[in-house]
Amino acid sequence: MILEMKVPSPGESITEVEIAEWLVEDGDYVEKDQAIAEVDSDKATLELPAEESGTITLKAEEGDAVAVGAVVCLIDTSAEKPSGSDAPKAEKKEEAPKVESKPQAAKTETKTYATGTASPAAKKILDEKGIAATAVSGSGKDGRITKDDAVKANPSMGTPTSGGSRGESRSKLSMLRRKVAERLVSVKNETAMLTTFNEVDMSPIFALRSEYKEDFKAKHGVSLGFMSFFTRAVVRALEIYPAVNSMIDGKEMISYDFCDVSIAVSGPKGLMVPVIRNAENLTFRGVEAEVKRLAIRARDGEITVDEMTGGTFTITNGGVFGSMLSTPIINPPQSAILGMHNIVERPIVRDGAIAIAPIMYVALSYDHRVIDGKESVGFLVAVKEALENPTELLMNGDVKKSLEM
Questions:
Q1: In-domain check, residue 117
Q2: In which domain, by residue range, is 207 found?
Q3: Does residue 90 contact residue 24 with C-beta atoms inside 8 Å?
């Protein structure tokens, strides 16, 4: 029996995906639920699992844009599993630059190529570079020149040079990256974005973490990090300044009585922004557990579109990469984003005397169409106050009770 595998819908409003990478080769035997491809949508990169076991025939190439519901491969479920060894497992190929190509028509048969012959995809790339196939060594079956061979081919092959590397490569932006680029440009063009700054003395939080982090981790299985303090400080500030927890929809302003806080985390395909739902109801343990869960799912490429949809406010931490100060860009359609930065010991004035303290610069970028200067500055000051007096403002004066919950 020949099973047609079609592109499933990654989420609402998504009508097209892009084959980012095949994890198997044409003719391989695959097991049911084995990951056979990675597909990009404009919101996330997802794995495509085999629906049944059998021999696979690929019907689309890497880089092809295919509609949701379109057939991307065939699985011959009547094929027997290779004897003498287990079926080959999918291994991710080393990342190689991809060259943009137009969607190809579905293949109807498996083709073979003689030594030194370029596949259609490889030939197209070589033609664009002006390189003869005879100048390229093929690494494919029977010496075939593969798409990767063509991508890596140097335009100066066969031409004397003055020494030194002069190669270049082109890589196609993923659908996700292209969508992110469009959104960021639209934010700059369609919002009245401003940024206000402040600094936070992190000494009180350092002291709390130093005293309680070991017991906290032993009890809850997660570390007591900075994100729980910042998230709770943001929730408190959003309750004081509800306009910051609003967004524009056409000629209307939507305000929310809940705090869905988006957190920017680094994933294998770039920046991901999963959402902590109803952060106003979470304890310190609840925030840290949710941050860890979402970060692991993003790192492992398991994050779903639903987990990144929505959000009423965003926190991003450039400090983990060493950033001292930045102007974070708003995550549309939200109206504000808080930027955290690295913590550095700096001289400050405390009680009329110079002291050395761990200082973090914080930045709030906001849409001035929704949020006035008074509200934006007041919001950031409220965050600063909570972080510099966490025992009273975030823990109701009872540290142990707050960290045991």
A1: yes
A2: 191-404
A3: yes
281 vs 260: CA distance, rounded Å: 10
35 domain-assigned: yes
Q: Which two tokens stand for residue 146?
A: 């593969």
**Total number of domains in the chain:** 3
In-domain check, residue 175: no
Within-domain flag for 94? no
Residues whose CB is less than 8 angstroms from the CB of residue 388 and which lie 6 or more positions away in sequence, other chains included: 200, 201, 204
d(CA 184, CA 186): 5
Provide the β-strand partners of residue 352.
none
User: For residues 65 and 72, what is the distance between their CA atoms, to the nearest angstrom?
Assistant: 10
Quick check: is 372 catalytic?
A: yes
Question: Which has the closest alpha carbon to 283: 349, 209, 214, 224?
Answer: 224
Q: Are 27 and 141 in contact (CB under 8 A)?
A: no
Task: For residues 56-78, give the mean pLDDT.
Answer: 91
Condensed to tens digits (0 to 9), the pLDDT of residues 381-401 reads 999 999 999 999 999 999 999
Which of 33, 215, 372, 398 is the catalytic position? 372
